[in-house]
Amino acid sequence: MNPWLTGLPLVLLLAVLLTLGAVALLRHNRRTGIKALLGLNAALMAGALALFAVALNAAPATAGAGDGGAAATAVAAATEGSDSSGAALIGAAIAVAGSSIGAAIAVAYTGSAALAAMSERPEIFGRAMVVVGLAEGIAIYGLIISIILIGQA
């Protein structure tokens, strides 16, 4: 099995334990806790960027030497367009992630404003929900773009 996959639960457990320690330190000494959380975030971001760089530079799998030339030719033909399809899949992931984060922020603001307005005038429920629905539409647009990109891959 891939060592990345076997080590992932240990890394996640370590990150959770460090986060809990930083939060406990934050309650005890605010300045030191904030520095610890910023350091933890920087370390996690560096690890994510390193993993991203390794994933982008990975070579496609090839057939073993004992399989003969036909298997190597089949693998080469199957992975011929993998560079552009990998970029399309990364683009689809970015489209979904960005639109979902944007929609979450928009729904947070419009939802709280709609609830505040409905508490004063309950008859504007329909109008308020239309505005919240328009904010949720941002995520649907990202999903549509990702489906188009995956179809092109």
Automatic annotation (TrEMBL):
Annotated GO CC locations: proton-transporting ATP synthase complex; proton-transporting two-sector ATPase complex, proton-transporting domain
Q: Which residues form the V-ATPase proteolipid subunit C-like domain?
A: 90-149
Protein location? Membrane
Q: How does it sit in the membrane?
A: Multi-pass membrane protein
Could you tell me the keywords of this UniProt record? Answer: Membrane, Transmembrane, Transmembrane helix
What's a GO biological-process term for it?
proton motive force-driven ATP synthesis
In terms of one coarse class, where is the protein primarily found? Answer: membrane
Instruction: Report TM segments.
Output: 6-26, 38-59, 89-116, 128-150
Q: Name one Pfam family in it.
A: ATP-synt_C
A GO term, aspect molecular function: proton transmembrane transporter activity
Q: Name the protein family.
A: Belongs to the ATPase C chain family.
- Protein name (Swiss-Prot/TrEMBL): ATP synthase F(0) sector subunit c
Tell me the organism. Arthrobacter jiangjiafuii
Q: List the taxonomic lineage.
A: Bacteria, Bacillati, Actinomycetota, Actinomycetes, Micrococcales
